[in-house]
Amino acid sequence: MLPFARVTILGLGLIGSSIARGVLQAMPTVRLTGYDADPAVRATADRLELCHDIADTAGSAVIDADLVILCVPVGAMAAVAAEFAADLPAEAIVSDVGSSKTEVARVLAEALPGATVIPAHPVAGTERSGPEAGFATLFNHRWCIVTPPEGADPAAVERIADFWRRLGAQIEFMAPDHHDRVLAITSHLPHLIAYTIVGTASDLEEVTQSEVIKYSAGGFRDFTRIAASDPTMWRDVFLTNREAVLDMLQRFSEDLSALQRAIRWGKGDELFDLFTRTRAVRRSIVEQGQDDDAADFGRAHD
Ligand SMILES: NC(=O)c1ccc[n+]([C@@H]2O[C@H](COP(=O)([O-])OP(=O)(O)OC[C@H]3O[C@@H](n4cnc5c(N)ncnc54)[C@H](O)[C@@H]3O)[C@@H](O)[C@H]2O)c1
Ligand SMILES: O=C(O)C(=O)C[C@]1(C(=O)O)C=C[C@@H](O)C=C1
């Protein structure tokens, strides 16, 4: 039996529209309702037939839902929840896909007192945004981290896990604060570094903008993909996972200073040892099948 019969998606961008496409394929009998604050996104979602119904308000979207899933930037979660709180059916489960979890869990619990809220985070995405960027296979073989609040109803947690497994994801359970530390180093800091390096390159006075574009092969090009990620989404991630990100950034800065010293004093062994260790990390990610380029890596380097 399917975990839910009537699913409402609030926010029809990259992640919301990917969930909609995945549900239409994997759970075709589910009745799907969508809502987005942006009328242009609602019109596009309608044209793409992402949902059976596109509602004009968050309240009317949730009125007969048994799952409501918030797919808006983390800084907008509280406002959306407040918009539909009065219309939420008592038996509905509320979830979200936010990239940071402690703050989102707090604001949802505050805005929806008495509701069953089971937050989750599919660790899958791209640098693109909007309803046209989504695709049904986005979550295939990717982790979805479920962060149930203490004392959560195990049956509700299992229904959320079942929903994500049907979209192709593998499930991991974590405490929200642990999630935020893990993602600070694996996702948030890499984005911050990409934003910095692309910003630094574009500010250089002795290298022109056209040279940066012209010679952006390999390493820099990979950074520009990440640095093209949605500004609203990432502003909100850094503001809501401030402490874990600052902590990881502190460690990163210390390690960067050590590298700076190794270069200055010609300590080739130190550089070589670190680069050997980091190459091994990449190899284990590839071996675990967690990278899209795994096959290419194997061909090019083995
Ligand atoms: N992009 C990724 O790689 C990725 C991966 C995993 C999780 N997430 C999380 O998913 C969420 C959505 O990200 P996305 O990449 O789909 O962003 P997106 O910009 O593609 O879509 C967000 C949508 O939310 C809508 N929205 C904003 N405020 C709203 C409001 N108050 N009410 C209703 N709709 C509103 C926007 O109009 C937009 O269409 C974020 O919380 C993000 O942290 C993103
Ligand atoms: O693949 C990308 O482009 C992503 O940035 C996806 C990515 C990540 O950092 O891995 C970004 C944010 C998420 O919350 C989850 C996944």
UniProtKB/TrEMBL annotation:
Residue ranges occupied by any Prephenate/arogenate dehydrogenase domain in the UniProt entry: 5-293
Source superkingdom: Bacteria
An annotated Gene Ontology molecular function: prephenate dehydrogenase (NADP+) activity
EC number(s) from the headed UniProt entry: 1.3.1.12
Top EC class of this enzyme: oxidoreductase
GO biological process, any: tyrosine biosynthetic process
InterPro entries: 6-PGluconate_DH-like_C_sf, NAD(P)-bd_dom_sf, PDH_C, PDH_N, Preph/Arog_dehydrog, Prephen_DH
Pfam families in UniProt: PDH_C (PF20463), PDH_N (PF02153)
UniProt keyword NAD, yes or no: yes
SUPFAM superfamilies per the UniProt record, alphabetical: 6-phosphogluconate dehydrogenase C-terminal domain-like, NAD(P)-binding Rossmann-fold domains
Record's catalysed reaction(s): prephenate + NAD(+) = 3-(4-hydroxyphenyl)pyruvate + CO2 + NADH
Pathway where this protein functions: Amino-acid biosynthesis; L-tyrosine biosynthesis; (4-hydroxyphenyl)pyruvate from prephenate (NAD(+) route): step 1/1
Keywords of the record: Amino-acid biosynthesis, Aromatic amino acid biosynthesis, NAD, Oxidoreductase, Tyrosine biosynthesis
NCBIfam families on file: PRK07502.1
Similarity annotation: Belongs to the prephenate/arogenate dehydrogenase family.
Protein name: prephenate dehydrogenase
Organism of derivation: Sphingomonas aerolata
Upper classification of the organism: Bacteria, Pseudomonadati, Pseudomonadota, Alphaproteobacteria, Sphingomonadales
